Amino acid sequence: MDELNRKIVGHLLRDGRATFQEIGADVGLSAPAVKRRVDLMRSRGEIAGFTAVVDPHVLGWEIEAYVEIFCRGNVAPDVLARDLGGIPEVVEVATVTGDADAIVRVMAASMAGIEASVEAIRSSGRVERTRTSVVMSRVIDRPARP
User: Fold this and answer.
1) pLDDT band at residue 53 under the 50/70/90 scheme
2) Distance CA 61, CA 118 (A)
3) Whether 104 contacts 66, CB under 8 Å
4) What distance in Å separates the CA atoms of residue 144 and residue 41, rounded to the nearest whole number?
5) Which residues pair with 82 in a beta bridge?
6) Which of 40, 64, 66, 103 has the fewest CB atoms lying closer than 10 Å?
7) What is the dihedral of CA 32, 37, 42, 45, to 10 degrees?
């Protein structure tokens, strides 16, 4: 990815609804040139998509936790995705190095919702145990930068 594309991506991360003209003015290109570059980055998978960022509290999600999963034996990432994908409170899953096999981010309306989601995670026959940390506050929360 060249420097101009990095600038374009940076602008999109700050404001995903920016027009090609606004981005072009920021990076020194015409609107059609920005569009061509964005289309090309999308076709190559460098830009995976566009989304709205919604305040979780608006959705009623007041509690957030990270659940470390310790599996029985080896469990492939696609198996974890299948096992955990049906739990609505699960918003992210990542396999990790270290003692845990994966870390799961869950969000719910209440502590009872967190507890129910942890129990749902544990119900997989592949999960030996879990360790949960509840988020008290977010100190820094920003998108990745190019």
Assistant:
1) confident
2) 15
3) yes
4) 17
5) none
6) 40
7) 180
142: left (phi over 0), alpha (psi -120 to 50) or beta: beta
Nearest of 59, 45, 35, 46 to residue 2 by alpha carbon? 46
Digit-coded pLDDT (tens) for 119-133: 999 998 899 999 999
Tell me what the mean pLDDT of segment 91-119 comes to.
96
10 Å CB burial of residue 117 (0-12, 13-18, 19+) is: buried
Q: Are 16 and 9 in contact (CB under 8 A)?
A: no
Q: At what angle do helices 3-14 and 20-27 cross, to 10 degrees?
A: 130
How far apart, in whole angstroms, are the C-alpha atoms of residue 31 and residue 23? 8
